[in-house]
Amino acid sequence: MSIVTVATSPIEGQKPGTSGLRKKTRGFMAPHFVENFVQAILDAIGGAAGKTFVLGGDGRYFSPQVAQVILRMCAAQGAKKVIVGQNALLSTPAASHLIRLNKTDGGFIMSASHNPGGIDEDFGLKFNIANGGPAPESVTDAIYAATKTISEYRILEAHDVDLGAIGTTTLGGMAVEVVDPVSDYANLMETLFDFPKLRALFAGGFRMRFDAMCAITGPYATEILERRLGAPEGTVVNGTPLPDFGGMHPDPNPTWAHELMDVMFGPDAPDFGAASDGDGDRNMVVGKKTYVSPSDSLAVLAANAHLAPGYAGGISGVARSMPTSAAADLVADAKGIGKYETPTGWKFFGNLLDAGRVTLCGEESFGTGSSHVREKDGLWAVLLWLNILAERQTTVAEILKSHWQDFGRNYYSRHDYDALPVDKANAIVDGLRARLADLPGTEVEGMQIASADDFAYTDPVDGSVSKLQGLRIVFADGSRFVIRLSGTGTEGATLRLYLERYVAGPGGLGLDVQDALAPVIAAAESLACIKATSGRDGPDVIT
Ligand code: G16
Questions:
Q1: Which end of the chain is more exposed for a tag (fewer CB within 10 A), N or C?
Q2: Does the pTM of the predicted model rise above 0.90?
Q3: Where are the alpha helices (DSSP H) in 123-230?
Q4: What is the pLDDT of residues 265-279, one digit of tens each?
Q5: Pocket lining: 413 vs ligand 1, CB cutoff 6 Å
Q6: What kind of fold does domain 2-180 have according to CATH?
Q7: What is the Cα gyration radius of the chain?
Q8: CATH superfamily of domain region 185-403
């Protein structure tokens, strides 16, 4: 085995997005592409010498090859040890947990999350820091800078390491510890939730359907729900992770998880349904004929978390991304705890969690999590919902109804326009941005505009500033819309339009969501001209 230094040159398009680098798989397969990016990561974090890392991913196409490259590069550059999920599999929250549990220096996660997998679909790679969370912008900026000046990388010439067998081997002078991907994570869940009570719930005939969408949460959900909690076999469907997710688009929203929606809204629906995404950090929760919007889910979890043993002492605060509805803020106000509004991207929650300012975080993009790890966590959210249902002995529909009665309802929806030509998407955003200063005080579609700005965030812990995080137009009645471009798409530009309208109740809490939002939707079109500029009839995805 010898260490070789390979001459290379910068490759275009290695700028990390909202959550690491995501690209078409064939782009990642281009010569030197993975090696350049891994070298840039290692350079940006001050080298690998003496360090321990975690490695795993959602098992999508090309992951086995990338895992071997990362191992050989870490070995060549003096890393002490890499802890790898068996067969290079780890859900993103499980990877975050292993980084923390083993006090490592960080980890490599191979995933493009909710994006489809396969040679003609998407691949992704991101680095998480020692707190278990996605690298903050200071680190991703350094990674990007390193990709632009790279001239060589160092790699070990060696045979592939057998990642199928649990145990420790060596690669050069580096230890490779292959671990069961599920057990430590499942043990952590047992410390947070009332497993005996959940076992009793299932034993009492409670019926659930968990759709793993042929992605990574299958083994985790099967172990926890069916084995440890005794839910009947078959509770977990699409439970085997496949390199192409069986052709599914593993994005747990009503559009892509339509099989689950059909069951939950059909005859003989189970009591509770849930789906997770490619890498297991997102979740969608559905009751019998009841869809729970992610923003409402965060608010309900914040209001009820104390019912689970891991949060019995209460929560210190709650954070949400700016486009997420303000429903969780109302809960924070009522509880007298901290509330924070961050840019889109889980990395922005890291400092707040580390500082103990918040216990729960969530986003409209089907992500919820807590201080137990530094990633959002799909299965964790599902278990917290189950714990709340077991304690309150009621239905999802009743929980939502009573929540709205207590706090009012933030009607909320996101409209996505996928794969737009980049120039058209930019024209929409730039056109609206240019008008922001003139909008306050004017009227559109009968609605008075109270404020209009481009969201900027100052991290209250380290003072770092992130600008240009989304255009927001707020109306006099508190309704608002937000427009921003996705940082996770791999084809053209995805434009996201976020819509919100608050109704205090007691009347008007049971409206159809799109009907309730109709005036805001009309105002957004009138101001931003999305359909007119894009030539599209309407959004591709409505959440
Ligand atoms: C990632 C980020 C989330 C973000 C989501 C959507 O999630 O971690 O914080 O909300 O992307 O981002 P965008 O609107 O820029 O596409 P995931 O599940 O894809 O890792």
A1: N
A2: yes
A3: 137-149, 183-192, 195-203, 217-221
A4: 999 999 999 999 999
A5: no
A6: Alpha-D-Glucose-1,6-Bisphosphate; Chain A, domain 3 (3.40.120)
A7: 23
A8: Alpha-D-Glucose-1,6-Bisphosphate, subunit A, domain 3 (3.40.120.10)
